[in-house]
Specification:
Layout lengths: L7 H12 L3 H20 L4 E3 L3 E8 L2 E4 L6 E4 L2 E8 L1 H6 L2
Antiparallel strand pairs: 1-2, 2-5, 3-4
Helix pairs in contact: 1-2
């Protein structure tokens, strides 16, 4: 497991330094990216950045389950989730 993490502020600073852009500009681009990503996924559109990642909405059908405390049978409602898949370049970077 990774013992290090990169929060948003550190990410913005790193991208700004790498690209030569201001942190405000990079922050605005990240805001726009996440806004577009969430809107697209909410509409059911798969978003793919070839080689890096793919994000898509998934659907889980309604199903029967059990309350773990009482053992009583319950009905679990249908729901949507999000699936994020790593691309080949991201997988290669993780080796």
């Amino acid at each position: 497991m990774a013992d290090k993490s990169l929060n948003r502020t550190e990410l913005v600073a790193a991208v700004a330094a790498e690209s030569g852009q201001s942190q405000a500009a990079v922050n605005g681009v990240l805001d726009a990216l996440f806004s577009t990503l969430s809107t697209s996924v909410a509409q059911g559109t798969k978003v793919t950045i070839p080689g890096w990642l793919a994000v898509e909405r998934t659907h889980r059908a309604a199903r029967a389950g059990r309350n773990p405390q009482t053992g009583e049978a319950i009905q679990i409602a249908a729901s949507n989730g999000v699936k994020i898949s790593a691309g080949s370049k991201l997988k290669a970077a993780a080796k």
